[in-house]
């Protein structure tokens, strides 16, 4: 038994090492710093420390949700063409990520079953494994999810300016508690509970419902943090809330306590939804002087590309 457990532990540690190889620094607990290659303008807002959204290297906080200039200036410009390229690539990229995730988890299941190691993975190892998956699910995304990738889509002289934030925006410490401790922590613990209740299998309906939620989070990062589409990101964060509720329901069907605990994270996500909605309301589109469209529209400042197209 001890020999089998050591094999399982070694296997999962190798898997986690592959995750971290692409990004050796853990950005979940780091504070956001100005990007040196971008020219910042003075702002009355205060920069606050906060962690990233699942799968992202950019923080989920209204002060760092986009890069825009001359916000609030009105003009006669109007968006008149829907960006069908974006509307096609978003679901294709999402489906591709889910396909890769399902293949990854079912592959692990087959390997463990072949060596008769199902149900022998320690609970603590599964918690660590799934916690890191909260941070690195974007490795399976076919769309860019970080600012460093997003800058490849923009001009070199692109200027950085922070968004206005709601007066009731929580202090930075609230984001430290809300994302890595409450949200990521409960996802990992409840996910491990589901794996245990499912006989040690990862490629199950319940776990994949959580992967759907993480994938929507990665898509949100693409739309909001890379492409700077504030309007479309508002729609996606409501979808993110719905997928979290769906995952909690699927967890509840397998292990009631796990479903209830996962549902607790909806409280924080509800606050995030309200905060982003308010951010969208008080930050007019610089091109039109009005609120940014909720549907992706065509404009030279916006471009949707897969990672291999950059």
Brief synopsis:
With 310 residues, this protein is mostly helical. It has helices at residues 2-21, 84-114, 123-136, 147-150, 172-197, 205-226, 230-254, 256-282; strands spanning 39-40, 159-160.
User: What is the percent of helical residues?
Assistant: 40-55%
Distinct helical segment count: 8
Query: Got a strand count?
Result: 2
Mean pLDDT: 79
SSE inventory with pairings:
Elements: H1 2-21, E1 39-40, H2 84-114, H3 123-136, H4 147-150, E2 159-160, H5 172-197, H6 205-226, H7 230-254, H8 256-282
Parallel strand pairs: 1-2
Describe this structure as you would to a colleague.
The protein has 310 residues and is mostly helical. The protein has a domain at 1-7 and 108-146 and 164-310: Ferritin, CATH 1.20.1260. It is 55% helix and 1% strand. Strands 1-2 form a two-stranded parallel ribbon.
């Amino acid at each position: 038994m001890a020999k089998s457990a050591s094999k399982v532990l070694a296997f999962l540690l190798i898997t986690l090492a592959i995750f971290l190889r692409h990004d050796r620094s853990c950005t979940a607990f780091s504070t956001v710093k100005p990007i040196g290659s971008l020219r910042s303008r003075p702002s009355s807002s205060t920069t606050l420390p906060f962690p990233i959204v699942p799968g992202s290297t950019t923080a989920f906080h209204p002060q760092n949700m986009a890069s825009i200039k001359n916000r609030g200036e009105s003009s006669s410009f109007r968006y008149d063409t829907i960006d069908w390229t974006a509307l096609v690539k978003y679901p294709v990229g999402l489906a591709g990520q889910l396909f890769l995730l399902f293949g990854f988890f079912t592959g692990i299941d087959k390997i463990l079953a072949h060596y008769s190691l199902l149900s022998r993975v320690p609970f603590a190892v599964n918690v660590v494994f799934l916690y890191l998956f909260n941070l690195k699910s974007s490795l399976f995304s076919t769309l860019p999810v970080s600012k460093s990738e997003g800058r490849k889509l923009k001009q070199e002289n692109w200027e950085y300016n922070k968004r206005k934030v709601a007066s009731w925006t929580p202090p930075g410490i609230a984001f430290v508690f809300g994302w890595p401790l409450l949200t990521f922590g409960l996802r990992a613990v409840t996910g491990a509970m589901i794996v245990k209740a499912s006989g040690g299998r990862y490629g199950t309906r319940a776990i994949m419902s959580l992967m759907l939620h993480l994938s929507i989070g990665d898509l949100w990062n693409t739309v909001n943090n890379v492409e700077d589409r504030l309007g479309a990101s508002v729609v996606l964060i409501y979808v993110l809330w719905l997928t979290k509720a769906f995952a909690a329901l699927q967890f509840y069907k397998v292990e009631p306590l796990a479903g209830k605990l996962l549902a607790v994270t909806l409280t924080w996500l509800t606050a995030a939804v309200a905060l982003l909605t308010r951010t969208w309301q008080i930050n007019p589109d610089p091109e039109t002087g009005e609120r940014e469209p909720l549907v992706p529209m065509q404009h030279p400042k916006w471009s949707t590309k897969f990672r291999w197209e950059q």
